[in-house]
Amino acid sequence: MIVHSRASLWCVTALLVALAACGDDKEAAQQVPDDGNNAPDMGMDIDEPPQDLQEDPGQEGDAPDPPEDVEPEVEDEPQEPPFAWDEAPVVPMALVDGLPLIDVTIDAQGPFPFVVDTLSQTIFVDVDIVGDDLFHQAEVSLGEDKDLGELIVKGRDMDPDEANLGVDIGGLVGQRYLDNRFTLLDYPGRQVRLLDRTPPEDVSPPPGHEDQPLHTFFYELPNLFPVVVPTVGADTEVPLLADTSSRMTFISQRAFDAIDDGTLPQIGGYRHWSNFGEDAAFLTRLPEFRFGELVVRDLVVGVVPDDNHLVAVLEPNGVSVEGFLGANFWNRFAVGVDGFRIPGMGQSEGGTKLFFVWGDGTPLEEQLASWVRVGVELARRDGGVIIEMVFEGSDAAAQGLVQGAVIESIDGQAAAELTLEEVRQRLTGQVGESRTLMVTLPEAEGPTEVVVQVEAVF
Predict the structure, then answer these.
(1) Contact 436, 411 (CB under 8 A)
(2) Helix and strand numbers, DSSP H then E, in the chain
(3) Is the pTM of this model over 0.70?
(4) What pLDDT, on the 0 to 100 scale, is given for residue 347?
């Protein structure tokens, strides 16, 4: 499910479409696949066998005793072969702004890049491919080797998601694939491994991660939305939606207040946005974020008001959380999404399941470097690169950059010739460097040259 935040936000649009409990996607949440335990009454009468096939009761003692040295034959039960990573089909994965994209073919069309999205309840497909926003039966395959057969998919306008991601996508791969499968999202290895059975508890590390520790933690699926509960700060448990399609991690103001000792930074000017509304927000950096023995350090999060606009959408759907755990958490690791229900655990509709995480939680160098930058956030709209947000107190704000301004060029390079990710990268650098921008401000008749400093946001 994709949640947008105008700063960086490629965040809950899919969530929000899927969440429309108040809309046609509630139907998707209510559909429960037939697991074979609800066989219909076939209306068959069972007659007695024909007389000539009925057993002759005979007389007591007539039946001979079986020879003592003959044991009844017992067929060996089929044994599942031992788990091996090389049995798992591998699909190359691209990371665009931290989000995992894999190739998907729909009804022999494509392949198209799809975002792997733990928050989507179904497989969403761009309306340009399936034609409208209704449910469809479609032949779906992932990569070159994984044919999923005929699945229910749902049409959806992907334009808002594409604006914040900066590339065209075909849709979102959600719970209809992830359920009852094991999916390894190997972020460092840039690949996805796909299995139709769960690995054993003592599973070996995936290739390339032999020296990485393994951590596991549970997730629940209330109304088919995955919820995890990390400990933030000293001892504050914060329930969050596990969202591989959100660029940012978000927590509520009350969660922030519970963990802030007065030393956490607050960078204003951020806004949390979705197609249900928007909220003023600020950025902070959390020194410690824990799942048991797994400690994640220096996680940047957005802090939103307690009555943020998504509360009214989430709570009626039985989802009570304090935010979203986004890609800046997940892409530090190789992440196994174990979609097989754990018997006897959890009362949610989807049961209790497991995440497998290989890694030590150390922030990636590119994540740290991304916050030494010109103090703006961007989107691509109508073919142009638009400033979506300006951080308070930044040199960008001091130089007059505002929301809605169009970046025409960076150091002489036309922005239209670059991907959105390339534009973002060109605005990062070393503290003290500067970037010369040609920008067209709202209501201005033409572009203006602005020299702006690269600075540490935190």
Answers:
(1) yes
(2) 11, 32
(3) yes
(4) 52
Q: Distance (Å, rounded) from C-alpha 310 to C-alpha 1?
A: 13
> What pLDDT shows up at residue 51?
36
CA distance 239 to 250: 11
Two tokens, residue 358: 């290989």
* Amino acid, single-letter form, for residue 276: F
- Output the CA–CA distances (angstroms, integers) from residue 235 to 4, 22, 120, 257, 287, in the order listed: 29, 36, 30, 13, 13
* Secondary structure (3-state) at 265: coil
Stretches where the chain sits below pLDDT 50 are 1-63
What homologous superfamily does CATH list for 13-28+88-358? Acid Proteases (2.40.70.10)
What is the DSSP secondary-structure string of 384-434? EEEEEEE-TTSHHHHTT--TT-EEEEETTEEGGGS-HHHHHHHTB--TT-E
Beta bridge mates, 334? 186, 358
* pLDDT tens digits, 100-159: 999 999 999 999 999 999 988 889 999 999 988 788 899 999 988 889 899 999 999 998
Whether domain 372-456 has CATH 2.30.42.10: yes
3-state SS class at 438: strand
Strand partners, 281: 270
Q: CB-based contacts of 89: which residues, under 8 Å, 6+ apart?
A: 142, 143, 145, 146, 193, 194
pLDDT in tens, 156-188: 999 888 888 888 999 999 988 888 889 999 999
Report how far residue 258's alpha carbon sits from residue 263's, in angstroms, rounded to the nearest whole number: 13
Q: What does the H/E/C string look like for 333-377?
A: CEEEEECCCCCCCCCCCCCEEEEEEECCCCCCHHHHHCCEECCEE
d(CA 268, CA 263): 16
Sign of the CA dihedral with 365 first, then 209, 342, and 171 last? positive
409 and 27 Cβ atoms separated by less than 8 Å: no
Residue 417 forms beta bridges with which residues?
A: none
The CA distance from 116 to 175, in Å, is: 10
Burial environment of residue 303 by CB neighbours within 10 A (0 to 12, 13 to 18, 19 or more): buried
State the distance between the two ends of the chain, measured CA to CA, in whole angstroms: 29
Cα torsion 27, 29, 31, 37 to 10°: value is -160
Q: CB neighbours (10 Å) of residue 434?
A: 13
Q: In the chain, what are the domain boundaries?
A: 13-28+88-358, 372-456
Residue 192 one-letter amino acid = V
